[in-house]
Every structure is written in structure tokens, then in C-alpha cells.
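Subject: for your reference before the review

Hello V.,

The reviewers asked for a structural picture of the protein, and I figured it would be easier to keep everything in one thread rather than splitting it across files. Below is the amino acid sequence we used in the manuscript, unchanged from the supplementary table.
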Amino acid sequence: MADPITPEISDRICQHMNEDHRDAVLLYAQKFGNTPEAESATLASIDPEGMNLSAIVAGKSVPVRVTFDHTLQDSEDAHQTLIAMVKQSKK
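And here is what came back from the structure prediction:
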């Protein structure tokens, strides 16, 4: 069974995404956070309802909230949802 989304799991997911999937994090801000002008973005936290990002727009940090289309059940659901969002944003 996958882990529930605790603050520790959120930190682990954010660290992984920010280190290994910066392009995906930027897509989340641009496509799902209604910030198409974002130049870069960092994933700050994730919870069952959504994720908080910090996007750079015109040289300034802007908070961005992305709400998921369903409540996440666990870390595996988060993993699959984040992958699906990248695929959807590239259509």
C-alpha cells in the first residue's frame, strides 16, 4: 500500500519533482495554474486537494495553487495524477 500524503511525503515529492522534473513543474504552473507567462516554477507542497507552487513571472515570485480533479488517496495516486497532468498538458 502506498503512503498517505503527510507533510513528510509532500516534502519528498516536492524535492523529487524540483530536482528531476523541473519541466513538468513549469507545465503545472503554466497550464493548470493559469500562469502561462511563468518562466520557471518550484513545487512548494502537495496535499490531497492540490499543490502549491511558486512561479517566476517577469522576474517576480508569484504563488500558484493548482487544484486536482479529484482528492488524492495516497502517494501512488499523486504519482499517477502528476504523470497524467503532464500528458494532458502536452495535448
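For the response letter, the relevant points are probably these. Residues 7-85 form a domain with the Split barrel-like fold (CATH 3.20.180.10). The longest helix spans residues 75-89.

Happy to draft the paragraph if you're swamped.

O.
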